[in-house]
Fold this protein.
Amino acid sequence: MGASRAWTGRGCRWLGAAGSLGVALGGWAVGTLPAHDPWGLWVPHGTAVTAAGHALAYGGLTVLVVAWWLYGRTRASVRDTLTTLAWWTVPLVCAPPLYSADVYSYIAQGAMVLEGHDVYSVGPSVLDPGGPGGDAAASVGGHWTDTPAPYGPFFLLLARGVTWATGGTLVPAVLGMRLIALGSLVLIAWALRNLAREHGRSESAALWLGALNPLLLIHVVGGVHNDGLMTGLMLAGALLALRGRWITGSALIGLAVMVKSPAAVALLFVGVVVGRAAGGSAVRRVAKGLLLPGLVAGAVAAGVSLVPGTGFGWLGTQSVAGRIHTALSLSSDLGLGLGEFLRLLAGTDPDPVKSAVQNLGLLVALVLIARLAWLAATGRTEPVRALGPALLALVVLSPMVQPWYLLWATAVIAATANGGRALSVVTVLSAALVYETQPSGSTPPYGFVLAALACAAAVVLLRRERAQEGRGHVPGPRLPAETAAEAAAEADVSTTR
C-alpha cells in the first residue's frame, strides 16, 4: 500500500508540474504582457501563437487543478508535499506576470517612493516614461494609472528596494518582486505546518490546501500579488502569539497591516489569545487583550510610516479599491442592481444606493467578526480557528472582491479547521476561482461560466467522498499512520523541553 501511495503521489506531482509548465509557457504568449519590454522578452505574438497560448494556459491550469485535487487524496507525507510544492512552483518563476497587472503598479509605486513622489496622493502617471519604473507605469491597468497606492508603507519600501536594485528595468524588477512572493510562500508553508501542529491538524493536509493550492500558485507566484506577503506575516504572527510570544506576533501582524490593511482583523483574535492567557479579573483580561496587541502593532505601523518618510497617507487610500466594481462582490452587485432598479422606478441616483449597500455589507461583516471573537473569548472555539471564518466573512461582504482575496481565509482555515463547512467552501472555491480571470488579467464572461462548472464538479466530488466516508472509506488529505505516529512522538518530545 505504501508503494502505491508513493506512486500515486509521484504521478500527481508530475501531472501538476506539467500543468504548471503549461500555464507558464502559455503565459509567454497570453500573460499580462507589458506595454513595452526593453529586453524584448515579454512581447505580443501573432494570432496563431496567441490562440495556442490560450489553449496551453487553460489546458495547463485544468491539469494543475486536477493534479491538486488528486494529490489531496494520496495521503502524502509532509516531505513529499513540500517537494511537490517546489516542482509546481518552479515553472512559474521566470514566466511573465500572469492573471494581473498589479506587479507593474508595485514597481511603479516603488519608483515613486525612490524619486520622492507622494504615492498616497498621485498615481504612477507622474513618472517619467523614460526613467526608472517608466515602462512599468505604462503597463499599469487603465483605472490604476492615476490612482494613489492603497498599500502600506512596509510593502512600498520593499518595492522601492527592488526598483533601486534593478534600476526599474522591467524584467529584473518583476523577477525581484517575484522573489518576495517566493519568500512569502516559504513563510506561509512554515506557518501552516506549525499552526496545524498547534491545532491537531495534519500538516500535509494544511500544506495541500494552504500552500499547494493552485489559486495561490497562479496569483501569488504567477501574479506576484502582495496578498501572499500579508498572509504569511499574519499567519506567523498568529502562530507566535499562540506560543506566548504575543509581542513579536503582534509586531509581525503590524507589518502585515503595513502591506494590506485586512490583516488588522487578526489583531482582534490575537487579543483574545492574550486576554485568555492573562491573569486577574475579567476586566483586566479584556483590557489587556483589546489594548496591548493593538498598541504593539500601532507602534510598528507608526515606525514604518515615519522613519522612511512615506507618512500616514495610507490611512486615506484604503477605500480607493472599493470604487472599482468587481462582479465577485455580493454587496456591490446587490447595490448596483438595487440602485438601477430605483433609478428606473423613481429616477434616483444609483451611486448612493450602491454605496449604502456596500457599507451595510461591511457592517454585517464586522458584526460576524465580533461574534466570532466573542465565541473565542468565551472558550467556545479557539481564537485562531475563529480567525479563518472571520476573514472569509470579510472577503464575501467586502465592496471589492478579487479571486486571490480568498487566500486570506483559506490559509488560516487550512491550518486550523478539522472539517466543517468553511473548509469545504474554501476547497471548492479554490478549484473554481482560478478560472475567473484570463492569464492576461482581464475578466471575460466565460470565466464565470468555467468557474461555475468547476464549482459544480467540486461539489459533486466532495459529496461523493462524504458518501464514501459513510461507507467506511475515508478520502482526503491525511497523514499516513506512520507519519501521524512520528508527529505524535515529536509532540511528546517537545512538551518535555
